[in-house]
Write a structure and sequence with these properties.
This protein has 290 residues and is an alpha+beta fold. It has a domain of 151 residues: Glutathione S-transferase Yfyf (Class Pi), Chain A, domain 2 (Up-down Bundle). The chain contains ten helices and four strands. A four-stranded mixed β-sheet has the order 2-1-3-4, covered by helices on one side. Strand 3 and strand 4 form a beta hairpin. Helix 1 runs parallel beside helix 3, helix 4 runs parallel beside helix 6 and helix 6 packs across helix 8. It is globular. It starts with 45 loop residues before the first strand and ends with a helix. The structure holds glutathione. Glutathione binds next to helix 3.
Length: 290
């Protein structure tokens, strides 16, 4: 095993230094706002405050899918929250999500605004509001929720575990990379075995379970996350690759995936979205490049 600096934890942990790594300037051990900042509100019924990370993409993909089905009530303004600059700690954002993480949604279509935070909660709220991408049959609905909550519990091992220690931590720690690579591969195998039996995660129908899982695990097998694809031998999970490709073929997924994105090719970044026509400058060919 590789050498690591010896560390003996003190009796009581104190916040005395930045911990290094890519997120050192925003990590903090306390909640609540750091500064006063109101959030902008646009003209649409739904106001989304987000960033085009996998967690953010879940919501914009669902919104684009709902609009594609003709639900005009799903029209939305997608405002950019730059988490690297600490926008998630502004007072307005914290009022919508006390957990200071994107994505956060404000539904301003009714008499009183309704706040929704946590991506799984937002997906459920929207699917119930519009009666779409969430089966009504009890068994299919239960299966959808099982995979949706599977994602919520599993992805932190992929993102916060494998991704963090493989790509972002200031030093490579073999123990941590090994532990989280093993768990990530186990999770990919869970998906692979399921998708060997069914077309989509909850069965025959595309649902919010697929929309939640795809940006993480679909992105992983497409080679978009952490450049860890070869290391994890992601292409060996053939059923996950098949499923990821099928979902990526959906025009709404291609649109939703680029909203609030700040990385990738310029054609794959729509920093803010306030109108369907905002996509017009991006042709399907350009979107297909990803
Ligand atoms: N469980 C949350 C996770 C959200 C999350 O981790 N968001 C990250 C970006 S992907 C974030 O906002 N990080 C900012 C921070 O930790 O300060 C969800 O699914 O909504």
């Amino acid at each position: 095993m590789s050498e690591t600096t010896e560390y003996t934890p003190p009796k009581v942990w104190t916040w005395t230094k930045a911990n290094g790594g890519r997120f050192a300037n925003t990590n903090r051990p306390i909640a609540g706002p750091t500064h006063d900042k109101e959030l902008p509100v646009g003209r649409h019924p739904l106001q989304l405050y987000s960033l085009g990370t996998p967690n953010g993409q879940k919501v914009t993909i669902l919104l684009e899918e709902l609009l594609a089905l003709g639900h005009s009530g799903a029209e939305y303004d997608a405002w950019l929250i730059k988490i690297g600059d600490g926008d998630q700690f502004g007072s307005g954002f914290v009022a919508v999500n006390p957990n200071s993480k994107i994505p956060a949604l404000l539904d301003v279509s009714g008499k009183k605004p309704i706040r929704v935070f946590e991506s799984g909660s937002i997906l459920t709220y929207l699917a119930e509001k519009f009666g779409a991408f969430l089966p009504t049959d009890p068994a299919e609905r239960a299966e959808t929720f099982s995979w949706l909550f599977w994602q919520m519990g599993s992805a932190p091992y992929l993102g916060g575990g494998f991704g963090h220690f493989y790509a972002y931590a200031p030093m490579k720690i073999e123990y941590a990379i090994d532990r989280f690579a093993m768990e990530t591969k186990r999770q990919l195998d869970v998906l692979d075995r399921r998708l060997a039996e069914t077309q989509y995660l909850a069965g025959d129908a595309y649902s919010i379970a697929d929309i939640a899982v795809w940006p993480w695990y679909g992105g992983l097998v497409k080679g978009w996350l952490y450049e860890g694809g070869e290391f994890l031998d992601v292409t060996s999970y053939r059923n996950v690759v098949r499923w990821a490709d099928e979902i990526f073929a959906r025009p709404a997924v291609r649109r939703g995936r680029i909203v609030n994105r700040m990385n990738g090719a310029p054609a794959e970044q729509l920093r803010e979205r306030h109108d369907a026509s905002d996509f017009d400058t991006r042709t399907e060919d350009k979107l297909a490049a990803g």
